[in-house]
Specification:
111 residues, alpha+beta, five-stranded mixed beta sheet, two-stranded antiparallel sheet, 7 strands, Ubiquitin-like_domsf, cell membrane, methylation, Membrane-anchored ubiquitin-fold protein, prenylation
């Protein structure tokens, strides 16, 4: 894989710590990045995502869609000299319906 097809990314977690930097192919999808984030998530954190849909990636102020490739996300920073690109990670657990005595209970999440 040619070196220019690789993009170095790091993922900033909610508490300011990072995962990475790690080099990815420009053809990698956001869904692939989320799977990698879950596999490398520090186990000592209070909030731990369980599935890719629990993770939102933000780059240049935009929430990235799962089927988008890194190359498609790259336009805002495509003109920058080579360096590490930081994407922000938001953990938003999937909503699940919980019932207690037949009455629905809405889950409460910390930001």
């Amino acid at each position: 894989m040619p070196d220019e097809d690789l993009i170095e990314l790091k993922f900033r977690l909610y508490d300011g710590t990072d995962i990475g930097p790690i080099r990815y192919s420009a053809s990698s999808t956001v869904a692939m990045l989320k799977e990698r984030i879950i596999s490398e998530w520090p186990r000592d954190k209070k909030i731990i995502p369980k599935v890719a849909n629990d993770v939102k990636l933000i780059s240049a102020g935009k929430v990235l869609e799962n089927n988008t490739t890194i190359a498609q996300c790259r336009s805002p920073f495509g003109e920058l000299p080579s360096g590490v690109v930081t994407m922000h990670v938001v953990v938003q657990p999937s909503l699940t319906k919980t019932k207690t005595d037949g009455v629905g209970v809405r889950p409460c999440y910390l930001s």
